[in-house]
Amino acid sequence: MERKVRILVAKPGLDGHDRGAKVVASALRDAGMEVIYTGLHQTAEMIVEAAVQEDVDIIGLSILSGAHMTLFPKVLELLRAKGVDDVLLVGGGIIPQSDVDELQKIGVARIFGPGSRTMEIAAYLKEWFKSSSRATA
Amino acid sequence: MEDMDKIKEAKKKWREKYEKSSPQRDALFQSISGEPVDMLYSPDDIEGMEYLRDLGFPGEYPFTRGVRDNMYRGRLWTMRQFSGFGTAMDSNRRYHFLLERGQTGLSVAFHMPTIMGYDSDHPRALGEVGRCGVAIDSLEDMEVLFDRIPLDKVSTSMTINAPAAILLAFYICVAEKQGVSSSKISGTIQNDILKEYIAQKSWIFPPGPSIRIITDIMSFCSEHVPTWNTISISGYHIREAGSTAAQELAFTLADGFAYVDAGIKAGLDVDRFAPRLSFFFNSHIDFFEEIAKYRAARRIWAREMKEKYGAKKKESLLLRFHTQTAGCSLTAQQPENNIVRTAYEALAAVLGGTQSLHTNSMDETLALPSEKAVQVALRTQQIIAFETGVPDTIDPLAGSFYVETMTNRIEKKAYEYFDRIERLGGVIKAIEKGFFQKEISDAAYRYQREIERKKRIIVGVNDYVVENESIEIPLLTIDPEVERVQVAGVKALRARRDSDLVKRRLEALRNAAIGTDNLMPLILEASRAYVTLGEMIDVLKTVFGEYKEIPIF
Predict the structure, then answer these.
(1) Using a CB-CB distance cutoff of 8 angstroms, which residues of chain B are in contact with residue A47?
(2) A27 touches chain B (CB under 8 A)
(3) Which of B187, B143, B130 is nearest to B164 (CA)?
(4) Domain range list for chain A
(5) Cα atoms found within 13 Å of the Cα of residue A92, Cβ hemisphere only
(6) Which residue from A minimizes the CA distance to B115?
(7) Could you give phi then psi for residue B281, rounded to 5 degrees?
(8) Among B111, B116, B117, residue whose Cα is nearest residue B132
């Protein structure tokens, strides 16, 4: 039997808007995933630390403050520094398309912007996991 | 009066006929909050209502129809667009633009570092400077923000909570420098910490010290800044976080009562501070539900202030409110549609008797408002004001069987929530138990499921979708240079200040925080010495500690 996919849903930076993160967290839990929600005001260090400690497969960052071009790269940098290269990084929030393109170039797999369906997010993540190295690890 | 029994009988017959022969659309027929909406409302739905007791006249108890006797016949609502981005200079430019376009009051949006008590050069401010609002680190920035804006002529609302005392002090100091006494300035600080723990989540200190700061502000203002609204007791953010209309109403009023309790406990006379409490509601897309909400809010507040708190002054009974149209109702898809949503929401707020209004810009799901978009938003208000005729008569929907039914219903729901909160031990205990937060996230999740199952249509998002659409409106971007300039500025300020004076001011503030002296005079003194916001907050943190939320979802 396949084990549950583990995801860390995180709110980096000073942004306090957690409605989306909580809705996604609840939906992913209902879709059978193991969800750890960090809560608000996390630094990139705290997020990566939690991700490693909890041995998650996926990290999802929710950023509505406009600070995404600082926070996503920082998380990626810290993951690389820790030698973590098999964890999927996704996100959501208020991120203009031009920045989405930039983020995908540097290693963010997908950005789920406003209007995204949680069922689609769940399907995407499960699909990724099936063919990821972590599934067979 | 017509015989109610005859009406009931006739309606029964009509309903039987319709249920047999007329089909219904496949729709929820529930308000956005889940309230069932009947096909028709008639006199029997408001049986037992008494005009004088339940509605009365505007400007008179129970104020259901409006807080002022002449409402918009006397003075239109204030057109007050929430605004701020980049540096103080960038925002000052936008404020002049808005005032020139006919806005009648200012409303300041601060960036996240200011909101959370950090200076722009703090490590936690990295990447955040000037992005969600204007960067204000010290009185110096505040002076630039209000350059050439006469503070004896323009009123200003500042959306700031945990550090509200500091921003109020900065504002008073700017007025001072303009030669305007604090007794002449008008405005509002949001300063509603309870809803931070519940919904907006921009807290710094734990509840106890936060309430102390608030009562210090209330006391200080009642003496020195008499035409200042010391709290904008808010439902907007509670609603944005996903609550229903009834939850927004109930949780906001419950917070309000908690502040009244706090003021009385701090030894203040209710009639001295209550007249300066104001409110801030959301105007969501479900048109009639919102209008009912505002009317019920006025009636409930007036009743409780009179009967529970024994307030004697008329001004203590008035629920005066600002409204913002619902950000969470807007879509990133086909953003031009947001102009329409905002227009209906603005109309609901006016029909509900708001004192002040902010209309969202069409592009706010994508970025902060561009000049073009905010102009349309302002024009939306002006068209309602001058072209629709709606403001020419007071509370025109009074007597509507539907609107009065909804008003009564939401009022009843609010009281049910008051009871639950009471049984949990009051607002602060309920916050500690995560009561509000769970209600809100449950409501948000329910709503999301409705949308994903297409039980509720959001035009452009789950129906009437345009595949691969391109966004063809200009979007505001924040230049990363803003951060560099702001950081350099605050560092330069620290270098050229009288650092001994700064040290003494911070020490005095710390001692006051440890004791029971009113903090406002100490914060004012520190502000005048160009102590930064971050420096003051850091000192207060050492005394008050920091709040930590237990995350639940």
Answers:
(1) none
(2) yes
(3) B187
(4) 6-136
(5) 23
(6) A14
(7) -115, 160
(8) B111
Cβ <8 Å between B366 and A94: yes
A37 and B201: CB-CB below 8 Å?
A: no
**A57–chain B nearest CA distance, Å:** 20
Contact residues on chain A for B240, CB-CB shorter than 8 A: 19
Instruction: Identify the helix (H) or strand (E) that includes residue B166.
Output: helix B164-177
Class of domain B62-452: alpha beta
Q: Which of residues 100-129 of A touch B (CB under 8 A)?
A: 113-115, 117-119
pLDDT in tens, chain B (553 residues): 679 999 999 999 999 998 888 888 999 999 999 999 999 999 999 999 999 999 999 999 999 999 999 999 999 999 999 999 999 999 999 999 999 999 999 999 999 999 999 999 999 999 999 999 999 999 999 999 999 999 999 999 999 999 999 999 999 999 999 999 999 999 999 999 999 999 999 999 999 999 999 999 999 999 999 999 999 999 999 999 999 999 999 999 999 999 999 999 999 999 999 999 999 999 999 999 999 999 999 999 999 999 999 999 999 999 999 999 999 999 999 999 999 999 999 999 999 999 999 999 999 999 999 999 999 999 999 999 999 999 999 999 999 999 999 999 999 999 999 999 999 999 999 999 999 999 999 999 999 999 999 999 999 999 999 999 988 888 999 999 999 999 999 999 999 999 999 999 999 999 999 999 999 999 999 999 999 999 999 999 999 999 999 888 8
Alpha-carbon distance B64 to B301, whole Å? 10
Q: Which two tokens stand for residue B530?
A: 């160009």
Contacts with B445 from chain A: Cβ below 8 Å? 22-23, 26-27
Query: Does the global pTM surpass 0.80?
Result: yes
Q: Identify the residue whose tokens are 């004791």.
A: B515
Q: Measuring CA to CA, how many Å separate B34 from each of A18, B118, B137, B252, B348?
A: 22, 40, 43, 19, 19
CA angle B107-B32-B79, nearest 5°?
20
CATH architecture of A6-136: 3-Layer(aba) Sandwich (3.40)
The answer to whether the CB atoms of A13 and B113 lie below 8 A apart is no
Select from B115, B366, B278, B3 the least CA-distant residue to A100.
Answer: B366
Of B185, B293, B172, B276, the closest CA to residue B233 belongs to: B276
Structure tokens, A53: 């400690």
Please name the member of A16, A65, A114 whose beta carbon is closest to the beta carbon of B331: A114
Contact (Cβ atoms closer than 8 angstroms) between residue B268 and residue B518? no
CB contact under 8 Å between B333 and A115, yes or no, is: yes
- Please report residues of A whose CB lies closer than 8 A to that of B113: 14
Whether the Cβ atoms of residue B295 and residue B352 lie closer than 8 Å to each other: yes
Q: Do A23 and B445 touch (CB under 8 A)?
A: yes
Name which of B542, B537, B539, B469 is nearest B203 in CA terms. B537
Neighbouring-strand partners of residue B157: B107, B188
- Between A and B, how many residue pairs show a Cβ–Cβ distance under 8 A? 95
Classify residue B99 by burial, with Cβ atoms within 10 Å: 0-12, 13-18, 19+. middle
Report yes or no: A57 at the B interface, CB cutoff 8 Å: no
Please list the residues that pair with B280 across neighbouring strands.
B234, B322
Q: Which residue of A has its CA nearest to B129?
A: A67
Distance CA B172, CA B401 (A): 48
